[in-house]
Amino acid sequence: MLDALNDFLSGKLLIVLIVGLGSYFTIRSRFVQFRHFGHMFGVFKESLRGQAGQLSSFQALMLSLAGRVGAGNIAGVGIAVTLGGPGAVFWMWVTALVGMSSSFFECTLAQVYKRADGDGLYRGGPAYYIQHGLKLKSMAVVFSILLLVTYGFAFNGLQSYTVTHSLQNAFGFAPEHTGIALAVLLAIVFLGGIKRIAAVSDLLVPVKTLAYIGVTLYVIGTQIEHVPAMLETIFKSAFGLDPAFGGLLGSAIIMGVKRGVFANEAGLGSAPNVAAVAAVKHPGAQGVVQAFSVFLDTFVICTCTALLILLSGFYTPGFEGDGIVLTQNSLAAVVGDWGRLFVSVALSLFVFTCILYNYYLGENSLQFLSRNRAVLMTYRALVLALVVWGSTQNLSTVFAFADITMTCLAFVNLIALALLFKIGLRVMRDYDEQRRAGVNQPVFDSSKFKDLDLDRAAWPANPQAETATDNAAAQAQPQR
Hints:
Elements: H1 2-28, H2 32-35, H3 37-46, H4 57-68, H5 71-84, H6 87-112, E1 115-116, E2 122-123, H7 126-133, H8 137-171, H9 175-190, H10 193-222, H11 227-238, H12 249-264, H13 271-275, H14 283-311, H15 323-335, H16 338-369, H17 373-390, H18 396-419, H19 421-436, H20 463-476
Antiparallel strand pairs: 1-2
Helix pairs in contact: 1-6, 1-12, 1-18, 3-14, 4-10, 4-14, 4-16, 5-12, 5-14, 5-15, 6-11, 6-12, 6-14, 6-19, 7-8, 8-9, 8-16, 8-17, 8-18, 9-16, 9-17, 10-14, 10-16, 14-15, 15-16, 16-17
Subcellular location: Cell inner membrane; Cell membrane
Organism: Pseudomonas vanderleydeniana
Family: Belongs to the alanine or glycine:cation symporter (AGCS) (TC 2.A.25) family.
């Protein structure tokens, strides 16, 4: 019953809403993800610079990539190719293209309505823009509870099971021992709060991402002469024009869109929670950075996995098996048996950072509901206990339930995005106008948005004067 309900909600209804609204946002914003595509790299470079005591935009990006770049980039792509054929990859690309606009607006709104937490940091996300933008506190509470249950608890147990059993298969480690070791490492990170979580993500995410991309690019490089033909197969299969995959047209669309949605998370309401923590000069800048993360997740990492599978010679139409096994065997077919071990280690790093990401989403939801320190410590203890327990339990039923609750919170977020879209457009146009005027780093002046319920501590009025003062002080410093 759970599978049937989940298949209808996440496999049909949610896909239509996400792709439909993403397309609408794309058209109404005059294709914001294309207009700012080149600008994304400049903003990404600028995001490396942070303010003292604040989390930088780059750290927020790494934290969001900790969640976006996970098991879905290995197992999810394998499942999509297995059930939908090569054409599924094309529909993953399409989903990412429209998803980039959804991510831009949800993360921009998260920045607009973020709140200073009193410790020099910020908190925000869909619950905050629902409460302060739509004035619907009850709707915000529902979203927070759904996010806490889904990411804070259910998904963490599932991730623990995934990593412990992957290491058991690769190295023979006992799941219960791995679960305890994992809980200890997580506890060390959790106790440092968001700054330590961001610092660990800042270290691990580039390492795991670059290592995985490097190995897959090596495989692609050894088969480079076959890449054009394989890309042609992907495009033909996407429209049922390849005889070998003609019967998979419907599956290619469904699996490509579904796996694409859950790989990049654009529109689901999870990434805005971490996008809001960054100290930026304009909300639009963080929207651009987060749109770039969708591009990196799907067009780079998922594409690398797909080409690894399709070029290895291991995959054949009608392949039966799970996505992890397919990816492991595909890599091993080219580089040898160490490829299976590499995929297991990569998956372990992906899952570890995903748990950090999931934990923070739950903590952010909890902080929205209660600021009681004892409640936060109890949450941390429950998450760690669940990690240890989940390491030895197959939580497939819990996962099916979590899929449904995640779909429900996505519905809440999409409704809020649609209702707040005009405000998102106003902020985007303010960003665009400053860019057209030659301002490399647009600044958000809250005095232009007096009708919005903004936190003036996060967004002061007339920040240009402060910026000019800072620039003058910097120029007055002696040059070395």
